[in-house]
Amino acid sequence: MKRPLQWMALLALVQPACKRDEKTSETGQKLRSTPTELRGTWLSDCMSTTTLNAVSSQREFVINAIGDFDRLERYYSDPNCQHLVATYKVVGTVETKGPNPDKPDLEMINFTVNEAYITVTSDTILDDLNRMKLCGHTDWSVAEPVHVTNAACEGSKVQKGGVQFDSYDIRDGHLYLGESLMFLAKDNASDRPSELDLKVPFTRR
Prior knowledge:
Blueprint: H1 7-10, E1 40-44, E2 47-48, E3 56-63, E4 68-76, E5 84-100, E6 103-120, H2 126-132, E7 146-147, E8 152-153, E9 156-157, E10 163-171, E11 174-177, E12 202-204
């Protein structure tokens, strides 16, 4: 299996933390409305990858009006994002924090993790995952979501309440996030990206 866990770099991952006037999150935070420009479902193009021995992947964000988000990465065995082998899903809350002081034309955004799951959708990678004891599991099976929040996964943990500090901008109808891989956690505010990854535009669906 080649570069099996570049995958686990992803598990250091994405996060929300948003507030609204009346609703509270699972962590007890007050949630406020998400900016209208961010609300909806955002989908990336089909991209090449080597994660989980896949050939291509596609990323999706769903952000609602009260600060909840779902982040899904799908992995495929073909170059056209047709034959799905696994998914990685993170859910949580999101909060915008105003202009980035290092790059005022970008907005700051924080993602806070509530839960993370991996679901295998093809038996072609089961043996590899079980042999690696991915996230401490040796009983991976098809179509069974595995809860990986707080699990040790190749030296990384997706921790409940962990925050990713990122930046964003919407240009010509496309959402762009930080310059580094968006699912790699920046768990220190001083590491917040001041550049965007312009190679990965998200389009509202």
